[in-house]
Every structure is written in C-alpha cells, then in structure tokens.
Design goal:
Number of strands: 0
CATH superfamily: LemA-like domain
Structural class: mainly alpha
Largest sheet: none
Number of helices: 7
Helix content: over 70%
Number of domains: 1
CATH class: Mainly Alpha
CATH architecture: Up-down Bundle
Strand content: under 5%
Length: 186
C-alpha cells in the first residue's frame, strides 16, 4: 500500500512539473505576443500621424519634395512590413525613422513652419509616439529574453522541445548603417 502511495505521489509530482512548465511557457509566449501587439499599436499610430504632418508642411516646404517623398515611401514600406517578421519590421521602421530624422533637419530651415500651431502639435504627438515605440520595443525585447531563456534552460527546455516552442526574434538594429544618427549640416 505504501509503495502505491509513493508511486502516486511521484506521478502527481511529475504531472504537476510538466503542467507547471508547460503553462509557464505558454504564459511567456503570450507575453511576447502582447508586447509585440503594443509595438504594433504604436507603429500604427505613427503611420497615421505622418500623413497629417506631411499635409501640414507641404505649403511651407515647396523645395523639399524629395524629403517628403522619402517619408511617404518609407511609411508605405513600413506599413507593408508590419505583417512580416520582426526583422523585416525593424528594418522598415528604421528606414522610416531615418527619413523622419532627415525631415526634422530640413524643418530647421523654415522658421514659419516651426511656429505653426498644427505642426507643433503634430510634432509633439510624433515625439510622444516615438518615445512609446522605444519603450514598447524595450518591453518586447525583455519579454523575448524571458521566453527564450525559459525555452533554453533545463528542465523547461525538455517540455519546450516536446511541444515545439521555438525562440522568438529580438527587435534589433541589424546593420551598421541603421545605427548611425542622421547628420545635421547647416
């Protein structure tokens, strides 16, 4: 009788171990998905604000057509990439950030525009959104780190392998050109 009780206790411990590890893997995977959704929300907000900003500055920046076209093109590419991999989104969003950086450099040449209330409001909205994107990316990468650690560490790596949990990709800058800040020249 005691042998049967010991076997039942051991079996219960093994089942609890597997269930607990499986559930924690699912929780971490869902936290990664949630963190990615937060980035996606902020990127959508950014994509929605950019056309309003361009419309506001068109009248002022008649000689800067190329800059505005670069922003529009980068925004379009970023929106297309939003359904792709994390790496594709990171690359497209980095390109958009670069185009926006060049835009703000050009804006310095238009004092009337810098004083325009609509422009200032949109610029503040975009700045706020950029900050939220940065925080969301940091949170996403933190969640990916926790999830990937859980997948790779013993003993949860056994359960991860059994149920095909795979590592997620970090949101990161992959090329040296993307790491460079836009050059400001007056």
């Amino acid at each position: 009788m005691t042998v049967l009780i010991i076997l039942l206790v051991v079996a219960a411990v093994v089942v609890i171990f597997f269930v607990s590890n499986y559930n924690s893997l699912v929780r971490f995977r869902n936290q990664v998905k949630n963190a990615w959704s937060q980035i996606d929300v902020q990127l959508k907000r950014r994509h929605d604000l950019i056309p309003n900003l361009i419309e506001t500055v068109k009248g002022y920046m008649t000689h800067e057509k190329e800059t505005l076209e670069n922003i529009t093109r980068a925004r379009s590419e970023a929106m297309k990439a939003s359904s792709g991999s994390v790496g594709d989104v990171a690359k497209a969003e980095s390109s958009l950030s670069g185009a926006m950086g060049q835009f703000y450099v050009v804006v310095e040449n238009y004092p009337d525009l810098k004083a325009n209330e609509n422009f200032l409001s949109l610029q503040e909205e975009l700045t706020s959104t950029e900050n939220k994107i940065s925080f969301s990316r940091q949170n996403y990468n933190d969640q990916v780190l926790f999830y990937n650690n859980k997948i790779e560490m013993f003993p949860s790596n056994i359960i991860a392998g059994m149920f095909n949990f795979t590592k997620d990709e970090f949101f990161e800058v992959k090329t040296e050109a993307e790491r460079q800040a836009p050059k400001v020249q007056f």
